[in-house]
Specification:
Number of strands: 8
CATH architecture: 3-Layer(aba) Sandwich
Strand content: 25-35%
CATH superfamily: Alpha/Beta hydrolase fold, catalytic domain
Largest sheet: 8 strands, mixed
CATH topology: Rossmann fold
Number of domains: 1
Strand order of the largest sheet: 1-2-4-3-5-6-7-8
Shape: globular
């Protein structure tokens, strides 16, 4: 991979990211898990998502939310972090990327869901282990951009049974993929995440 460190402006602060820029209009923004629990853009799940998209010739951009790594600012309970997501989407849009996926893992999936409405610059949304048993998702209404949700069969923060109950309200078109034996951290299972993302990308859904 040929990722390069870049800094983008999120309102009044600078955000640290890693960009792997390829030709074409397809790109992805990947957001990381909870900053207060050690989450950053080098997380194993984030790495697997970036690798999966890169191998399908997407420009990839992952970044550290405010207050993480070399990103300025401080943790903002998911509020300021929404501006970071918009800044990342705008950054790729200005680079001529007209088909941008937005993928979030855990906390990142929650922030993305709050940040993105049906009219945003994200073409499709993928949620990995949205923490529905940890954070209130009642705000999330119908959004046809959400296409894929991945979780583990043993994930007690994003339990499949809870997610299934919520999916109809988010969009009836969402595909739910459950990785057998995986908990919230997907240790030893990131290859399965890659495989499911490849199937999703190759299907063109």
């Amino acid at each position: 991979m040929a990722e390069k460190k870049v800094f983008i402006q999120s309102r009044d602060i600078k955000i640290e990211g890693l960009l792997d820029s390829l030709r074409g209009e397809a790109a992805v923004v990947v957001t990381h898990p909870h900053p207060l629990y050690g989450g950053d853009m080098y997380n194993n799940v984030v790495e697997s998502v970036v690798g999966a998209y890169r191998e399908r010739n997407y420009t990839t951009f992952r970044f550290n939310f405010r207050g993480v790594g070399e990103s300025e600012g401080r943790y903002d309970q998911g509020i300021g972090e929404q501006s970071d997501v918009h800044a990342a989407l705008d950054f790729l849009d200005k680079k001529g990327k007209s088909s941008i996926d937005l993928v979030g893992y855990s906390f990142g999936a929650w922030v993305n869901a709050m940040a993105v409405d049906p009219f945003s610059k994200a073409a499709r949304i993928v949620m990995i282990s949205p923490p529905v048993n940890f954070i209130d998702f009642s705000f999330l209404q119908y959004n046809p951009k959400i296409r894929l949700v991945i979780t583990g069969s043993e994930d007690d923060i994003a339990p499949p049974r809870m997610i299934r109950k919520l999916l109809a309200g988010w969009s009836p078109e969402i595909e739910l993929q459950v990785i057998e034996g995986a908990d919230h951290f997907f240790w030893g299972k990131t290859g399965e995440i890659k495989r499911k993302i490849w199937i999703f990308l190759d299907s063109g859904l």
